[in-house]
Amino acid sequence: MKKKVLILANNAVGLYNFRFELICELIKQGLEVYFAVPEPKEHKMVKLIVDAGAKYIHTHINRRGLNPFEDIKLIIRYVKIVKTVSPDIILTYTIKPNIYGSYVASKLGKPTIMNVTGIGSSLTSGSLKILVERMYKYACSKATLIFFQNKHNLDFFIKNNIVSSEKTVLIPGSGVNIEKYKPVEWDKKDNNIRFLFVGRIMKEKGIEEYLKVAEKITSRYDHIEFQILGPFEEEKYKNLILYNKNKKINYLGKSDDVRNEIKEVDCIVHPSYHEGMSNVLLEGAAMGKPLIASNIPGCKEIVEDGYNGYLFKVKSVESLEEKLVQFINLDDSTRKLMGENSRNKVVKEFDRKMVVDEYMRAINAVIKEGC
Phi, psi (5° rounding) for residue 53? Predict the structure, then answer.
């Protein structure tokens, strides 16, 4: 009888983009894989995961909502799913699946591998800090193993007594598929320098700093363009971006395959406030692009200042502007070398195969122990 793996995640896009290789390996190894996400079965990413051989379960989840009644409904849904599937192991990603998934798994006697994909503001500041910390502490106490994507997050959890160190494993983020994301020849027809922001459009991803610096830079240079790619997570930025009269600042919409947009820019700019390990930077680096990013955990592991890009002070328009101007003033050969350095770094340190192998070791060990 096949062993069963249940994956609890908060969206199908992230599951496909960052965990698809793991799902395929689990199926290849003869395990039966189930995944619970909020998107409908007609969603493109859901279909791709199902086509690979995994079984889909619809689960409504409000990723950023604070309504306790919605969260209680999610817990009840998780209970029903776990009872129905009766998995041999549960994998959870992001805060709500981590906390509520681990809680349900412990109540029903199922082992769990949790992945802390990042520490947001709810854990570092604000009125919910103590509550979220306590909830995470309980969840970690019930989880079999907890993966962390950067050392800073791991140290934060240990220092604040949220997790015991013997349960933890440090991995290089989600890694990046270096065969899928690789340098592509770009038929550039002008001398313009194009910067690209990729991500959910929200304050904590640094969109305000990006827009402010774009206005300042484009007023000084005629050959610079700023592009924005991603969904509007916070509606207040929609009018600001869609009806911007600056023709050098362009919204590209959403993309099913960011390789198409990454290949046609000169540099990836990532002004985020918090990261586990930035997939945006990993994908840009794998495609041979220089990177300019906030000097924070989850970014500074990928960007070596002056080697494959620049780091700037988080939330600082002035610091970001300084690094952008520094990049603009480089000659073509130096920018090209930075891109090559990006590619070399991720191949050596962030190949997704490393993450998949670590997961397979842990999963096989847990399942073997449960036999």
Answer: 120, 0
Mapping DSSP to helix (H, G, I), strand (E, B) and coil, where does residue 197 land?
Answer: strand
Q: Rg for the chain (alpha carbons), in Å?
A: 21
Q: Considering only CA atoms, which of 119, 161, 163 is closest in space to residue 140?
A: 163
Region of 294 please: left (phi>0), alpha (psi -120 to 50) or beta: beta
Contact criterion met (CB below 8 Å) for 19 and 173 = no
Q: Report CA dihedral (310, 312, 318, 323) to the nearest 10 degrees.
A: 0
SS3 349: helix
Provide the token pair at 291.
């990177």
Place of tokens 């770009």: 186
Strand order in the sheet with 145-148: 55-58, 32-37, 4-8, 89-93, 112-116, 145-148, 168-170
Sheet holding 267-270, edge to edge: 249-251, 224-229, 193-198, 267-270, 291-294, 309-312
Question: Residue 65: how many CB atoms within 10 A of its CB?
Answer: 12
3-state secondary structure of 37: strand
> CA 293 → CA 50, 233, 271, distances in Å?
35, 20, 5
pTM of the model: 0.91
299-322: pLDDT as tens digits: 999 999 999 999 999 999 999 999
pLDDT, tens digit, 9 for 90 and up, residues 41-92: 999 999 999 999 999 999 998 766 667 788 899 999 999 999 999 999 999 9
d(CA 44, CA 243): 29
Concatenate the DSSP letters of all residues of 97-136 into one string: HHHHHHHHHHHTT--EEEEE----HHHHSSTTHHHHHHHH
